[in-house]
Automatic annotation (TrEMBL), chain A:
Superkingdom assignment: Bacteria
Family that this chain belongs to: Belongs to the iron-sulfur cluster assembly SufBD family.
Domain SUF system FeS cluster assembly SufBD N-terminal: 158-214
Entry protein name: Fe-S cluster assembly protein SufB
Species, as recorded: Xanthobacter agilis
A Pfam family assignment: SufBD_N
Domain SUF system FeS cluster assembly SufBD core intervals: 223-465
From TrEMBL, chain B:
InterPro entries hit by this protein: ABC_transporter-like_ATP-bd, FeS-cluster_ATPase_SufC, P-loop_NTPase
Keyword Nucleotide-binding: yes
Residues covered by the ABC transporter domain: 5-250
Entry similarity comment: Belongs to the ABC transporter superfamily. Ycf16 family.
Protein name: Fe-S cluster assembly ATP-binding protein
Keywords: ATP-binding, Nucleotide-binding
Organism: Xanthobacter agilis
Keyword check for Iron-sulfur: no
GO molecular function: ATP binding
A Pfam family this chain is assigned to: ABC_tran
Length: 494, 253
């Protein structure tokens, strides 16, 4: 990941908006006709050579979607999206599922190189500074617009029994597994954007960890939207069978464009008895310029089902990008003794609007959950935490601890906290703590008097504020996230 | 001898137009300890903020030369790197940032600005622990977030620790004794005195004479209505203790 750090240094010298991934890759692409119709859905399904039941599921979702309307309860404001003015499928033209990296278009490889995402396994192995063996290895699935272009370390994972592949491939190779779990956590009719996703999703990652296996490396998917006027609708499905463990990381970037782009993903996690999934996100979609022009609309449904006894899901997210974020990674705590965690850092600057939080739904006995949310607003942005903690009738002994802190930088931004708490079992125990504070001039001056530049002072104070959450990220991503935070807030004071 | 700090006919105000410093002159040579005494509201703290460059305090006339450089041209962090240190009357708390990490960042930010090699973590930790011992600061206090939950005495010891680590040419001590019991006062004063050398100078701002029993000044100034109205030796502090400031306030008005 050293390459990413170099780019961080470089980007400091560029004086346009601080977004460093704003470049565009020149590549010919093949698209579905513009707009959404049954024909387009059939086109996507045929492109993917999907089984019949999958097409039926898509068409069913599409018909239901037609009767649904967009949710309006979030504290975000944007012009009506014309869903007929979008492309729902875009793939690099010469694209045919590559057998090896040599078959992947060099332009695409270059794009990922520029982004600091290593796709060549030998390069990942030959760590530059860290001696081999000590360097953590990460298997990467790279998704470019609507298709997965490369997945690394497939063979080694296969030897451990782990399935990690594009979901389109999994539909062909492991249809029974996909059929059993797809839509079992986020039903087709869940919400407007999830239903749309069910109808048109084009790719994403599929992970299956067999019973008792501890996944031998971090898994990671890297999403890149390149094409204009194209929505990205990826679908991720991760299943941790009994007694297994996996840590998964997702990263996202997009070119800098004046138009808004739509990203409506669905992530489903299934955790069986005694298994654990740790899911981390570093979301850095293009946030639009400082006046609010362009940027990604990030409307994402993420949910995990702790289906088995003593199962565990941990969501960690660092959100710095997107013009609008609408995202509530949730845990359904069904299995007895299961637990859910949500650690979040959401940063908004410029004109960004964030409405994000989590849902912890306690169904089983003795289920526990923990929410640590840190919202930072700067510029003229608005940052809302929205969360639900509920205990159902049978959730005896359910426990939750919630801590929501907001930090304001400057005078023109807003922070809002909207917690919903419902306890239907008298033996449930919920705790909620919340604070709102402002970075004070005095604090910055104190740091500067000791020799820190203004930007370093802001970064120091902010990093102190988000420390509890950063500690939850896998090590090298924590370093990345820390740098990302200072870049996102550059120029936010003074 | 080239003065370390030279203040010439300084006028300054708080943003919004309230004039606080009103034609002040002061020369501090290397190695000297100067005390500034004066009644509440005379502008003593303002002087420390103007010298260190706090936003909102504006120089409207005159100039301040520190080590040959016009301070007005430097940002607060550049002034710090030049060797100007302000020991805060009320040190700020920084939640989530460990004291050690803060010291590390501060020391290396200054070194970087001066083009000196940065300290490695082991070097810094060794140095900080040594200084900590002199000041009665244990490792636990170094791990805790900067000043969060520190007692008044701990905060002042922590300020002294920062000063000793950063080795400034000029230390401005703003009411360094406020909130200190006698034992803590001795510890802090010992730290400050250990720093005294032919190159280093101090500007001790206080309205009680007590502190000057421990940090003995070479020169004492009486500061009233935004300027120095009287200057004397260390015995002046004792006189003031007996007579109060009233006569000088009349003089200034």
């Amino acid at each position: 990941m050293a390459a990413v750090q170099e780019t961080v240094e470089q980007v400091r010298s560029i004086d346009v908006d601080q977004y460093k991934y704003g470049f565009e890759t020149q590549i010919e692409s093949e698209k579905a006709p513009k707009g959404l119709s049954e024909e387009v859905i059939r086109f996507i399904s045929a492109k993917k050579e999907e089984p019949e039941w999958m097409l039926d599921l898509r068409l069913d979702a599409y018909r239901r979607w037609l009767s649904m309307s967009e949710p309006t309860w979030a504290r975000v404001d944007f012009p009506q999206i014309d869903f007929q003015d979008l492309y729902y499928y875009s793939a690099p033209k010469k694209f045919k599922a590559p057998k090896s990296l040599d078959e992947v278009d060099p332009e695409i490889l270059k794009t990922y190189e520029k982004l600091g995402i290593p796709l060549r396994e030998q390069e990942i192995l030959a760590g530059v500074e860290v001696p081999e063996g000590e360097r953590p290895r990460i298997a990467v699935d790279a998704v470019f617009d609507s298709v997965s272009v490369a997945t690394t370390f497939k063979e080694e994972l296969k030897a451990a029994g782990v399935i990690f592949m594009p979901i389109s491939e999994a539909l062909r190779e492991h249809p029974d597994l996909v059929k059993k779990y797809l839509g079992s956590v986020v039903p087709v009719t869940d919400n407007f954007y999830a239903t749309l996703n069910s109808a048109v999703f084009s790719d994403g990652s599929f992970v299956y960890i067999p019973p008792g296996v501890r996944c031998p490396m971090e898994l990671s998917t890297y999403f890149r939207i390149n094409e204009k006027n194209t929505g990205q609708f990826e679908r991720t499905l991760i299943i941790a069978d009994k007694g297994s463990y996996v840590s998964y990381l997702e990263g996202c970037t997009a070119p800098q464009r004046d138009e808004n782009q739509l990203h409506a993903a669905v992530v489903e996690l299934v955790v069986l008895d005694d298994a654990e999934i740790k899911y981390s996100t570093v979301q850095n979609w293009y946030p639009g310029d400082s006046e609010g022009k362009g940027g990604i609309y990030n409307f994402v449904t993420k949910r995990g089902d702790c289906r088995g006894k003593n199962s565990k899901i941990s969501w960690t997210q660092v959100e710095t990008g997107s013009a609008i974020t609408w995202k509530y990674p949730s845990c359904v705590l069904r299995g007895e003794g299961s637990s859910g965690e949500f650690y979040s850092i959401a940063i908004s600057n410029g004109r960004q609007q964030v409405d994000s939080g989590t849902k912890m739904i306690h169904l089983g006995k003795n289920t526990t959950s923990r929410i640590i949310s840190k919202g930072i607003s700067a510029g003229r942005s608005n940052n809302t935490y929205r969360g639900l903690v509920s205990a159902h009738r049978k959730a005896e002994g359910a426990r939750n601890f919630t801590n929501c802190d907001s930090l304001l930088i400057g005078n023109a931004c807003g922070a809002h906290t909207v917690p919903y708490i419902e306890a239907k079992n008298p033996k449930a125990q919920f705790e909620h703590e919340a604070t709102t504070s402002k970075i004070s001039e005095d604090m910055l001056f104190y740091c500067m008097q000791r020799g820190l530049s203004q930007e370093d002072a802001v970064a120091l104070v902010v990093n102190g504020f988000v420390r509890d959450v950063l500690q939850q990220l896998p090590m090298e991503f924590a370093v990345e996230a820390q740098k990302l935070i200072s870049i996102s807030l550059e120029g936010s004071v003074g | 001898m080239t003065p370390l700090l030279e203040i010439r006919d300084l006028h300054a105000e708080i943003a919004g137009g309230r004039k606080i410093i009103n034609g002040m002159n002061l020369t501090i040579n290397p190695g000297e300890v100067h005390a500034i005494m004066g009644p509440n509201g005379a502008g003593k703290s303002t002087l420390s903020y103007v010298l260190s460059g706090k936003p909102g305090y504006e120089i409207t006339g005159g100039e301040v030369i520190f080590r040959g450089v016009n301070l007005q041209e430097l940002s607060p962090d550049e002034r710090a790197a030049q060797g100007l240190f302000l020991c805060f009357q009320y040190p700020l708390e920084i939640p989530g940032v460990s004291n050690m990490a803060f010291l590390h960042t501060a020391a290396n930010s200054q070194r970087k600005k001066r083009g000196e090699p940065e300290l490695t973590s082991p070097e810094l930790v060794r140095k900080v622990r040594e200084l900590g011992k002199q000041l009665g600061i244990d490792t636990d206090m170094l791990k805790r977030p900067v000043n969060v939950g520190f007692s008044g005495g701990e905060k002042k010891r922590n300020e002294t620790l920062q000063m000793m680590l950063l080795e400034p040419y000029l230390s401005i001590l703003d009411e360094a004794d406020s909130g200190l019991d006698i034992d803590a006062l001795k510890v802090v004063s010992n730290g400050v005195n250990a720093m005294r050398s032919p190159e280093r100078s101090m500007l001790v701002i206080t309205h009680y004479q007590r502190l000057l029993d421990y940090i003995v000044p070479d020169v004492v100034h009486v500061f009233a209505a935004g300027r120095i109205v009287h200057t004397g030796g260390k015995e002046l502090a004792l006189e003031l203790e007996a007579t109060g400031y009233a006569q000088y306030q009349n003089e200034a008005a």
